[in-house]
Sequence to fold (171 residues):
Amino acid sequence: MIASTVKIIVAGDGGTGKTCFLQRLIHDEFRMENELTKGVDFFSKKIKLSDKEINFVLWDFAGQDQFEEILDCFIEGSIAAFVLFDLTRVKSFESVQKWILKLKRFGNIPIMLIGTKMDLLNGEKESFLDDHANKFLELHDNVLGYVKISSKTGENVKQAFEILIDRVSSK
Fold:
């Protein structure tokens, strides 16, 4: 069996649930209280894909502006990215474009757009953000899909990862 390590970026504004997403994905747990990530943190997930064991190293980027300058040096070498926004905070969606453009400076990195905290949604805001997220799929050829998740309940967390891995490995 051939083993390899690949890097995936997890980006989005502070407080969008990046660390909660990764804790649910890697450890299948949810912590109500998390400290904001300072700089970069790392998570690792090994899976078997065809005849290979692949170690996915997921880089959890701090979303606060004061860390933005240091993040560029960590993006290079990534095979894909998750860009997260909080479905309950329209302002966090407004930053999605910024994150996509930042990643695009390092090539046409495939991106999965994720709306978080779907367990807290109300219908009106949800359809507004769904429409805008789907526009990103049309406007950016490197945005492979859009998934709404709940790290609290675990809904669609593993599916978002599987969709990204499937689409990246089929290219």
Observations:
- The first strand starts at residue 2 and ends at 12.
- Strands lie at 2-12, 40-49, 52-61, 78-86, 111-116, 143-148.
- The mean pLDDT is 82.
